[in-house]
Design brief:
The protein contains four helices and five strands. By secondary structure, it is of the alpha/beta class. The C terminus is likely disordered.
Length: about 130
């Protein structure tokens, strides 16, 4: 069971996503749709996805397909920040997902600490007050 959270961070013109619990193909597609709809509705292109507490039930070979699914829902390249999971096997899968997103034309940053997270949120992309 997953306990994901998707919320807007208007001060940073960013969608903040926490993936928490068991994550399989179905729950992954559900949260992808939710995060992209929120970003598109606000005119944002930045999404921060925190996989720290995830327990993946997705195979490594599925990671590029999930990235393609993500890509099929967006209207323009996105700027993404990824916080990797704790478990090594999950880190490899999310790393493959991030690499596939980059290959598809999205800007992807991998964050390793809370300081990285705050630096990315405060990054150079212009913030929008319409959130």
């Amino acid at each position: 069971m997953s306990f994901n959270r998707v919320e807007a961070l208007p001060d940073y013109a960013c969608v903040d996503v926490i993936i928490d619990g068991h994550e399989d193909w179905d729950s992954a597609t559900d949260v992808i749709v939710e995060m992209i709809e929120l970003a598109e509705a606000r005119g944002w292109s930045r999404i921060l996805i925190d996989f720290t507490r995830v327990n993946l039930r997705v195979a490594l070979v599925e990671a590029p397909e999930i990235a393609k699914f993500f890509d099929s829902f967006v209207n323009h390249p996105m700027t993404l920040a990824i916080v990797l999971p704790v478990a090594d096997t999950d880190r490899v899968i999310i790393g493959a997902f991030a690499s596939a997103l980059h290959y598809l034309g999205h800007a992807v940053s991998v964050l390793h600490s809370d300081a990285d997270r705050m630096a990315w949120l405060a990054g150079s992309e212009p913030r929008r007050a319409n959130g």
